[in-house]
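Record format v2
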Amino acid sequence: MMTRRATTEPRWVRLLLTAIALGFLFLFLVLPLIAVFWEAFAQGARAYWDALQDGEAQSAMLLTLTIAALVLPFNIAFGVAAAWAIAKFDFRGKSLLTTLIDLPFAVSPVVAGLIFIILFGAQGYFGQWLAAQDVKVIFALPGMILATLFVTFPFVARELIPLMQSQGRDEEEAAVSLGASGWQMFWRVTLPNIKWGLMYGVILANARAMGEFGAVSVVSGHIRGETNTLPLHVEILYNEYNQIGAFAAATVLALLGLVTLVAKTVVEWRMRRETEMLTADLPPERTDLPPSVATERP
Amino acid sequence: MFPVAAKPDGVLPGFRLGLGYTLTYLTLLVLIPLGGMILMTGKLSWADFWSIATGERALASYRVTFGASLAAATVNALFGLVVAWVLVRYPFPAKRFVDALVDLPFALPTAVAGITLATLYAENGWIGERLATFGIKIAFTPLGIVVALIFVTLPFVVRTLQPVIEDIEAEVEEAAASLGATRWQTFVRVLLPAIFPAWLTGFTLAFSRAIGEFGSVIFIAGNMPLISEITPLLIISKLEQYDIVGATALAVVMLVISFVMLLVINLLQWWAANRHAKGRDVEPVEARAPGALAEARP
């Protein structure tokens, strides 16, 4: 009893802190989540369903899915390439590069949209030229894709860099010295090792790509049925006092958020289990290694 | 800082490909657009730039943006510490569910958060109604901005503190207690110094995200110029008046602030990592640890 009391708080303090924490989370997380669905069903399931059947809502959903589907492959390719170079090799300017990769997270979404208007908008650097070629970037799909690429830029790289750094180079070096080609090494050694980390990054990037509002709003032009993503559609309906329509569309996005949370939790759980299995295997293997290799790991 | 210079590094392939792709993609998508924006301000004389950046409406928008962000980050720092502590230390039902829920603001699109919070805190909303009886108005006032920002930045402090609290070794607390410290003394003089860098990092991350936030804020803010207009919204309203140069000037101000925040975050993380990874065998850091109790560290 004495030893426990030394490293934990009195019972009333524990209860009070737990109550404060849960109360805060209930007020700021649970209540809004309930409210989304409550407002959407305020006039019954029928009205909710009709709101979702609306043609503009459906084209907004389709556009949101299209943008995410086009953006994610770029993010994956970039994330893997960047993490490979940064985690497996030493070169000058590495920490600067890592900082630059994080840069889009620090930039306001509105600024992220504005930079593409400055490049490709009517008053922008390439605006005249694009107009002459009859290519629309701003207030069209390409601009929205660029803005989404920008705001989701760091997600995959950021997950993979620390993961690949902690895995070291041993396994890949073994594969290559046993005669594997670069691609064989990548598909059979690297990819299986990073698959959960990659998945994690993709889940987060996807949530952001589908939910992005500020950056896309600046470059979209809000053309109904054409350049309206689902979050922008929510805004338009809300500003027209179409409460049911706005919240019905919002529930689709909220469900996306919940699916993201579940998927993320599952992936986290798998990652933890794999590291646990790995560390459980480690001691016998590690003792065989010469000390210089063993100490390479932190 | 340093030019990127490849150094032959072992037998692994793909360095040139990985780094080349990374640098190309980074340059095209991030560096050129941001550079283009900075160049755009070259169309302004310094005096013009200054008068836009320090115009009455701009100054008021900085006050609103920074004030609300500071308030939200502070609220989250306090409650986030309690939430992280409770999640790591105390058992309670459905803990894994609650833990996963903390990430909801990262997964829920900001527009959904915006319309939901605006509805909850409006005078006829679930929360707004109750507060109205005390004469407190949240929605469509600067307080509403704080509420939206608390929601959006809620996970930062919790997620940066959790692993650090988990890493505190029981021996440290036991030693403090056996040397006669009360629980409160142990917390203030042993635990708080250990988690302080992470705490500050979480606060700064929350603050820096809050400054740029747009989607969740505009629905609940009321957006009255000089009173509840945030800087990102002012950029958009300039853009809508085809004042692209004016919008750019304000965006550059925000970009500079983002750079500074990014620098501060990197420094904080470097400080935190140094204290935690190397702190134990580096003398000066150890000597700086406040209080004689720090001697108790293994």
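Chain B has two domains: 12-43, 44-109+154-214+225-296.
Residues 104 and 155 of chain B are 8 Å apart (CA to CA).
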